[in-house]
Design a protein that fits this description.
Strand content: 5-15%
Shape: elongated
Number of strands: 3
Structural class: alpha+beta
Order of helices and strands: EHHEEHH
Strand order of the largest sheet: 1-3-2
Helix content: 55-70%
């Protein structure tokens, strides 16, 4: 197995007190990328903050996986809209300051 700082999913589940089926469901719904090697699942270390965010939505706010999917889509759309607004503000500023 190529080691890209992979963390066994079972270890993460145990540390965060969540079921492995929840993690697999996140993966099936393309909310989380897992690496499967020899029938064992792993999470890349750089995905850990995102995974913990998903767990907080599920555990602390009691949001189910379809709800998490909606929230993630809305957050992604918000980020895209924000980037568009910044770009438009920059263009407007350029034209306002043009002599």
């Amino acid at each position: 197995m190529e080691n890209k700082n992979l963390i066994p999913a079972l270890v993460i589940c145990r540390e965060h007190n969540v079921e492995i089926n929840f993690v697999k469901l996140l993966h099936e719904n393309e909310l989380l990328v897992l690496v499967k090697e020899n029938e064992e699942y792993f999470l890349e270390e750089e995905q850990l903050p995102h995974f913990e965010h998903l767990i907080r939505l599920h555990v602390e706010l009691e949001v189910n996986v379809p709800g998490i999917e909606v929230i993630e889509n809305l957050l992604e759309q918000h980020e895209l809209d924000h980037a568009r607004i910044v770009a438009l503000k920059n263009r407007l500023s350029f034209f306002e300051n043009e002599d």
